[in-house]
Amino acid sequence: MHSTLLPVWAAACLLVANCLMTPAVAEERVYELRTYTTNEGKLDNLNARFRDHTTRLFKKHGIENHAYWVPVGEGEENTLVYIISHADNDAAKASWNGFREDAEWQKVAAESEKDGKILSKRPDAVYMEATDFSPQNFESAEEPRLFELRTYTTAEGRLPALLKRFREGELKLFEKQGMTNIAYFTPQDKPNTLIYVVAHKDADAMKKSWEGFRNDQEWQQLWESSTKDGKIVIKVDRQILRPVDYSPLK
């Protein structure tokens, strides 16, 4: 009797052991690009609220702070742009619910708007996933840098070709010209779109890097090869950003 039961028992133990040893498949970390537009003269109030309270409360509720910027040029007097992240979509929802219901946050929000509402409209939020070639390091530098937030919209069905080009050569060519690759994302709800961030030492370095990149023969060959089957990028949006004093990424 024991000889017939032993293999069943052993098989059950083996099954349990395998379940315990097999790692769970983790969902993709979710990044959030948020843009806040303030009423006139209220950007300092918004930055003070983030500096003194909001970033700490984000962390309390499981939200990771990555980068906080204000634009250079258009929007510099009334815009805050930042990137945060969550373990997954469910975690994002739970974190935001917890943050909004936090008694400390409610008190901070009320006190910060005693002299008038800070935001002129609802924040713009884009949920994103990192590409397989994204550095994802958000590594800061000793001196504050200038950042570019670039959004590429591709022709229908051409995003894979764009990702292939970045994966197989474009990032290396950026580095060759002195740019620092920060992060690359695809939005969850915006098809045919790539959003990425690169950093430069300053405005002069940025200008020099892009000129060198455009004139690089290796880049020209890569572009010609990638567009043999048709045009890839149909629209480019660009923001030049500088980090605020409380940004983890500088």
Automatic annotation (TrEMBL):
It comes from the Bacteria. Residues 31-126, 147-248 form the NIPSNAP domain. The keyword Signal applies. SUPFAM superfamilies: Dimeric alpha+beta barrel. Pfam families: NIPSNAP. Keywords: Signal. Residues 1-26 form the signal peptide. Belongs to the NipSnap family. This is NIPSNAP family protein. It comes from Bremerella cremea.
